Amino acid sequence: MSNNTAHILDHKHISPTPMRQLVLDTLLNKKSALSINDIEKMLYPADRITIYRTLKTFEQKGLIHQVEDGSGSLKYALCQDSCDDNAHHDVHVHFSCKACKETFCLPKNQIPKISLPQGYQPEEISLTVKGVCKDCQITMQ
Ligand SMILES: [Zn+2]
Ligand SMILES: [Zn+2]
Ligand SMILES: [Zn+2]
């Protein structure tokens, strides 16, 4: 495990416990979003509740965000640097690959502003593009 994880946690004002470093390391090593089940499998036999709490802390501190890709299981991915413990500033489009079932962040694509009818209070917004990712395209050729 690298000291890099401790540095990143420190930067987001999260005290770097071994478990937090481990979960962060797992997220850093994967380029796609991970569900709690994925992380649990990768960190076996780590306790599911502890993983869940770790993810919640990361989310609150602006280190990771939730990814809804329509698969039915909630996934998490690392945030851009601009997120902090008050707000996520990197609301972006996600790409879900039909072939490998992985979901990726497309941080350069901001979700357009949606104008809601009067009296509607938005809480969250997500936009997922479905298709075939670059790696799978190459495999298919
Ligand atoms: Zn964020
Ligand atoms: Zn793919
Ligand atoms: Zn994302």
TrEMBL record:
Keywords of this entry: DNA-binding, Iron, Metal-binding, Repressor, Transcription, Transcription regulation, Zinc
Gene3D superfamilies referenced in this protein's UniProt entry, alphabetically: 3.30.1490.190, Winged helix-like DNA-binding domain superfamily/Winged helix DNA-binding domain (1.10.10.10)
Binding site residues for Zn(2+): C97, C100, C133, C136
Gene Ontology MF: a single term: transcription cis-regulatory region binding
Cofactor(s), by name: Zn(2+); Mn(2+); Fe(2+)
Family: Belongs to the Fur family.
Name the UniProt record assigns to this protein: Ferric uptake regulator family protein
Source lineage: Bacteria, Pseudomonadati, Bacteroidota, Sphingobacteriia, Sphingobacteriales
